Amino acid sequence: MLDRPLQAPCEDKDVENELKELASLARLVTYARERANQIGAEFPAYCLELALGAILQEMYPGMGNPDFVADEREAWLRSQPH
Asked: How far, in Å, CA of 44 to CA of 21, rounded?
């Protein structure tokens, strides 16, 4: 979707808008995943983790699943009271 050749300025704006929409969606999924973890809903949290990975792959094609997803999850888990 975002791995297009150089394009006209209006098409570049379309790509910029797509990235903004994907970033908003990533924030939404991240919030939902954190809430699912807080209430102990393990399977929904896992599914949301997969969804977040898919969004990030769409945002950063060719990079695989960025390591910062796992790092962010681990940092969040460590910050939760035991």
From this structure: 23
pTM exceeds 0.70, yes or no: no
User: Could you tell me the sign of the dihedral formed by the alpha carbons of 54, 55, 56, 61, in that order?
Assistant: positive
Q: How many CB atoms lie within 10 A of CB 57?
A: 15
CB 55 within 8 A of CB 26: yes
Residues 79, 16: Cα–Cα separation, whole Å: 33
pLDDT tens for the 82 residues of the chain, in order: 555 555 555 678 888 889 999 999 999 999 999 999 999 999 999 999 999 999 999 888 876 555 555 666 666 567 766 6
